[in-house]
Design goal:
Number of domains: 1
Strand order of the largest sheet: 1-5-6
Helix content: 25-40%
Shape: globular
Strand content: 15-25%
Structural class: alpha+beta
Distance between the termini: 65 Å
Number of helices: 6
Number of strands: 7
Amino acid sequence: MWVDPEFPPELSSLIDPEVDTDASLAKYEQFEWKRVGEIYDEPSIFCDGIEPNDIQQGALGDCYFLAVLSSMAEDPEDIKALFETKEINDAGIYLMFFFINGVKTPVIVDDHLPSRHGRPAFASSQDGEVWVSLLEKAWAKLHGTYARTEGGLPCFANSHLTGVPTETVRHKELETAE
């Protein structure tokens, strides 16, 4: 089975060495890496339809990314279009696409996932599909580590998932009459 040499199943793929403290290291050291087939009895990328409510966050603060996935899941074909590899395979290698500066860019990951208590530690699907976990892993690989994906703006994730330019509009706080 293939192991991604650029994003190996090691602590270095979890932490941000520039900012992580001993406390955050302790958080990441509690996870172990497991292959999808070790987590699920019958793993599937997509098995019973893609739905916005499939997504469960987990122990990583990347809700901005997961919110965009949930929005995209309103049209399941938008999620499927991100995947070249649409079936579980014996090699454990998956090709997905993100948009970097508007250019459709391939991202390859293996199927090692950070786990805790035999379940995915980070994002997963309520019904055991692995599309959520694989996209989150590919997002982490683009950023160098999972920790570097914590905290962000939906517009940033949206442009990378859809290729569409986005912007953030900040509204001034409304004054309330007393």
